[in-house]
Amino acid sequence: MLRNLSRAAAAAFLCLSGTAALADNPVHSYDLDNGMKILVKEDHRAPVVTSMVWYKVGSSYEHDGQTGLSHALEHMMFKGTDKHPPGEFSKIIAANGGRENAFTSRDFTAYFQNLEKGRLEISLELEADRMRHLKILDDEFAKEIQVVIEERRMRTEDEPEALTSERFNAAAHVTSPYHNPVIGWMTDLDQMTADDIRSWYQTWYAPNNATLVVAGDVNPEEVYRLAKKHFGPLQPSVLPKSKLRTEVEQKGERRITVKAPAELPYLIMGYQTPVIPVTDDNMEPYALAVLSSILDGGNSARFAKRLVREQQVAASVGTGYDSFSRLDSLFLIEGNPAQGKTIAELEKAIRAEIKRLQSDLVNTDELARVKAQVVASKVYEKDSVFYQAMQIGSLITQGYDWKLGDQYADKIQQVTAEQIRDVARKYLTDDRLTVAVLDPQPLDGKRPGHSGAANMPLR
Amino acid sequence: MFRILIVLTTGLSAISIQAAPVIQHWQTDNGARVYFVPAPELPMVDIRIVFDAASARDGDKPGVAAMTAGLLEEGAGKLNADQIADRFDSIGADFGTASLRDMSLVSLRSLTDARYLQPALETMTLILTQPSFPQNAFDRERKRALIGLQAKKQSPEAIADEAFFNALYGDHPYAHDPSGTEQSLKKLTRNDLIKHHKRYYVGSNAIITITGAVDRAQAEKIAQQLIGKLPTGEPAPALPPVKMGAQAVRVTKNFPSTQTHLLVGQAAITRDDPDYFPLYVGNHILGGSGLVSRLSDEIREKRGLSYNTYSYFSPMREAGPFQMGLQTRTDQATQALELLQQTLQTFMNDGPTAEELREAKQNITGGFALRLDSNKKIIENIAAIGFYNQPLDYLDTFNAKIEAVTAEQIKDAFKRRIHPDKMLTVIVGAQANADAAAP
Q1: Which of A189, A234, B28, B240 has the fewest C-beta atoms lying within 10 Å of its C-beta?
Q2: Could you report the average pLDDT of every consecutive run of 10 residues in chain B (439 residues)?
Q3: For chain B, give me the number of helices (H) and strands (E)?
Q4: Which of A42, A62, A74, A284 is the catalytic position?
Q5: B194: which residues sit within 8 A by CB, 6+ positions away?
Q6: Percent of chain A with pLDDT over 90
Q7: What's this model's pTM, rounded to 2 decimal places?
Q8: Is B44 in Cβ contact with A383 (below 8 Å)?
Q9: Cα–chain-centroid distance for residue A182?
Q10: Measured between CA atoms, how close is B233 to chain A, in angstroms?
């Protein structure tokens, strides 16, 4: 599963949105009669192929008491079908030199294989099989849910910043399903049954809720032919009418404290930013993306320059903003205070930077720098076939046109200093703000490394 | 990207036989070894310079190598950190430094258009040849390094990792955390960094690797410009050999986590070890191949005990570790540890099955193209080949060497090199239960 709040993820998404094909490699798009979409991106630099199946389902489709279903189902997808016993999917891919995995997020679940190009059909055949014929065995589920619980312990329970981030999301989203962690609350995992997973699978896994994205050294017509052969015969489902629960309007700032055994204080601030409709004349999502880079786009950006180096109030500080998401989301800022500085001092310094964005126009050099970075990253991201497939899949599965990726860099070029100031004034306001603070508690009152450590021979 | 020499396509079972990239190699006048792979498809270039200047060279000043690498971009010539950052960011160049145990790295990714590449190279040259290690930046970065050490203390995984290296390597230079220790960082001075740079950032101690849309003449010019003016200096001396553990050792660390983290292992192999291939293929079967490995099957798939269980060899200049690991709910730690040990023992007794060996070879050789399918992966590979002095045809011969490994060789190599009765076990978790994990 993907962690939603991390500097790496935030940075990745900026690039992710900053797609744009080199003009000579368009995306080929096909529709099967059963409603499945096929998107193919040619890239002939290496004799490899990435194949991904994306489903429109993730934690934001889940209801209270049933959180974590999408992610647990992702785990069960490796546990066999009528044709293939548990574990065989992975064995076949491995024996073909492939790498495979899957990821679940708020708005999607996706499965991928990276293979030598001649072996694409193997993955298509296996994915088509498990799209409709998964066999969820009670004893397999009983073991696998324990694996998921261990995953949750590793990623969240025992990681104080991740734990803070989880509680922050719950506080920042009151009615929105983004309230819930992707992996699910522990109590829901404890009570989940194999039947819950079966019905989740039956509800959402169907060709008319899926997109196949293939990128690499392939011929698009040939991919379409193979996809039609394997996915074409699958029956579509009647998908539930989506009852979207949107976020209630925030009525003033919210603050929470998370006490956990830890060493370092940690701060997260998030401003509600509604999903901004993407239309030709609406530059707001792009202006917010540039604003994010003005603060945190590289070592020359304002946070690194001013908060880390000049004021030395932050040991680390970063932003996170997704230009495109299915539901209302957040503009995030997170960081650790520098040695001898407090959370309050860090927050004050961050707020001063926000204020500055609202009152002064960013200067030409800063704007040019962000634009240069987007132009360059448009080339750099072509270095990874996997990444190109990710961009296409995530856009389409969140309800956007994949062409938005191609247009992204051009849109960024058009953002003006005034537009940045305007979105700062409109969205980065106290009434839209949630703040979470990690308040470190002693690690058992003793410091690890000084206590309980004993090197002694066995026996 | 790499050239495709012959492609055989025969439908489903199609196997492409492709050559690895042709690595061009030469030396600069001041002794730096250059490795170059042309990749003309995208208008970008990756440059990675590796110095034998990492924490293995810290001596009695743990952390000095990492601080030296980290401070490079904090000042050079007359430029301060802000100006350096502006110069790279304003042309979309990615500059970075890193310092591990063997290698200190300085890297650049830039567009090849001269309007961008030239200024990027000029700034990088200044950084490599005239770093100024400003006192104020040193003070600040030392504080940030201390915060970094503190952050590790709240992560059971990081605590286990550090304990593993400390106990495994004792007084060997690999023992300490490359970030240094609280005590050592507090004692460091700016002068220590200057000395470290002067000694180790020299031509004869440098490898420069280049891949991207530049030709040989350009690559020669780039190498010359970046490090041609460094003094020739002396290569770093040989590291002391690693002393192998004489008996089993157990290290337990109390930590208030819900899981216990277990690491089991020993010092094992160097990059040029003659047993490398049998051990590599054997480990792939034991715990190196994700969900289909034996460890994963026994611990995760059959019993649901852990999300992530694995084993690996990490070959280094001197003997790098063999490590098995997992993390599990603390009351299951005893059971999980026994399973780790048993799985290794069974594998050592019986060796791999014919089917396992065949599938492992298919996975490794069949996935060869995936190891080199981006400039990023190519430069990582050639930097390691250069740094560890591996032959230029290392990649060309890789698959054949994998294919040649037999089950007998694996069994024999594990028997000679892996010593379950002399292993280090690190246990990090809630104390009472971690103690109960003792057999």
Answers
A1: B240
A2: 30 46 96 97 97 98 98 98 97 97 98 97 98 98 97 96 98 97 98 98 98 98 97 98 94 96 98 96 96 95 96 97 97 96 98 97 95 96 96 95 98 98 97 50
A3: 16, 15
A4: A74
A5: B133
A6: 82
A7: 0.92
A8: yes
A9: 10
A10: 32
Using the beta-carbon criterion (under 8 Å), do A95 and B250 form an inter-chain contact? no
The more confident residue out of A164 and A456 is: A164
- State whether residue B252 sits within 8 Å of chain A by CB: yes
Burial class, B104, CB count within 10 angstroms (exposed 0-12 / middle 13-18 / buried 19+):
buried
Q: Is A144 a catalytic residue?
A: no
Q: Give how far B407 is from chain A: nearest CA, Å.
A: 17
CA distances for B77 relative to A384, B74, B127, B134, angstroms: 36, 11, 8, 11
Which tokens hold the place of A254? 């919210």
Handedness of CA A177, A182, A188, A193 (dihedral sign): positive
Amino acid at B126: L
Contact A448 B159 (CB under 8 A): yes
What tokens were used for B320?
């790098």
Helical pair B375-387 and B394-404, crossing angle rounded to 10 deg: 80
DSSP string for B105-130:
EEEEEEESSHHHHHHHHHHHHHHHH-
Which among A48, A154, A299 is the nearest to B369, CB-wise? Answer: A48
Residue of A nearest to B6 (CA): A47
- The span from the CA of B144 to the CA of B142, in Å, is 5
Q: Are residues B308 and A459, on separate chains, in Cβ contact within 8 Å?
A: no
- Please indicate whether, in this complex, the C-beta atoms of A118 and B370 are within 8 angstroms of each other: no
Q: pLDDT per residue over A319-353, tens digit each?
A: 999 888 889 889 999 999 999 999 999 999 999 99
- At A231-258, the pLDDT tens digits run 999 999 999 987 788 899 999 999 999 9
Residue with tokens 């599990």: B328
Is A105 in contact with A12 (CB distance < 8 Å)? no
Q: Is residue B377 within 8 angstroms of chain A, CB to CB?
A: no
Interface contacts A/B by beta carbons within 8 Å: 264
For B84, the closest chain A residue by CA position comes to A300
Give tens-digit pLDDT for B388-437. Answer: 999 999 999 999 999 999 999 999 999 999 999 999 999 999 974 445 44
